[in-house]
Amino acid sequence: MSGRIYLDQAATSWPKPEAVYQAIDHYHRSLGAAAGRGAYTEAVEVSRRVETTRAAIARLLGVENPRHLVFTLNGTDALNTAIHGALRHGGHVITTVAEHNSVLRPLRTLAEAGHITVTRVGVDGRGVVDPDDVRRALRDDTMLIAMTHASNVTGALQPAAEVGRIARQADVLFLLDGAQTAGELPIDVEHLSVDLFAAPGHKGLLGPLGTGILYVRPGVEHRIANLRQGGTGTFSDDEEHPATMPDKYEAGNLNVPGILGLGAGVEWLMAHGIERIRSETIALTDRLLERLRETPSLILHGPQTAGERVGLVSVTAPGVDSQELAAILDSAYQLQVRAGLHCAPAMHAALGTLSLGGTVRISLGPFNTVAQIDRAAGAIGEVVEQLVAM
Predict the structure, then answer these.
(1) Residue whose C-alpha is closest to residue 85's, from 236, 267, 259, 216
(2) Rounded CA separation 374/223 (Å)
(3) pTM of the complete model beyond 0.85
(4) Does pLDDT of 233 surpass 90?
(5) Nearest 5 degrees, angle CA 365-CA 363-CA 11?
(6) Which of 34, 80, 141, 361 could form a disulfide with 92 if both were Cys (CB 3.0 to 4.6 A apart)?
(7) Rounded distance, CA 222 to CA 268, Å?
């Protein structure tokens, strides 16, 4: 598979930095202990490395107190912890049509049970939310605003800072889903007025699957119930689960090999420089947009400039099935992209692509090259023109 071109980075990043593989292998071969569960040499070293990773992610996101950065099972777990933990019976939630099912489904579950009501605000033709729509949706009983930082369908960056200020002024919790932005662009949770920030570890943060993080703003933990209780390695003589951070949300053994791999990924990002990564992504995305526009029958969804989006472009073509297009690209060109609804059906309904079965999504990472982008755009254009002509 030496010719493989992997452009499904929005689903999970690949390849990882070499240090990620080495960190996971070193844990399994040489450390092998649980975090916070022993006083022998390897256990102490594991705990130290876990906390080093926590501190590194905190620096990356502008988190002042690393103890308010919680490790979760994945991004979905982080979002569920925030949503189920924050909401009480009778509350109102504002969200958007741009959300992933990891937000839509927990809210739907609570709404169907009669616990909450939900307002979804729309997007414009670029797939971007208007902050004024969020402001107009506020009610006296609004408890939470939950919004994605960037659409996983169009790549459109959302006005998170403006919405954060609206939430803060109204004393409403603001949950930001950073699945598509953490590790790809500079993030400062204080500047964004974020109360809760959730992200998976396996996408832009370059860690392995089965890792995630949740930032809980200091003081907000008193408003967020924990969903699990159990062993933490602390206060073991008390049957009541600890309320201290991060133990409140970290019941049970942590995924230590995953966390240490995640730590190596984050260290690579900081050494490379987030600003530099963002600049390189914009350049590659501009190149991709430019090359895809050479195929007249392709429809490019979302903002028209790379600076308004993350490194992700979704396309459709009249009469072309997205799954068929993706399958041909894989089998004939070893080009791996994502076809379908991308777990965001409301966004596709807003774009008019739901009835088409979704879009073909091309998403970039820090190890993709200009040569790969050119080969990918050429292959997509070639296949689309053949399918449209049939």
Answers:
(1) 216
(2) 49
(3) yes
(4) no
(5) 85
(6) 141
(7) 34
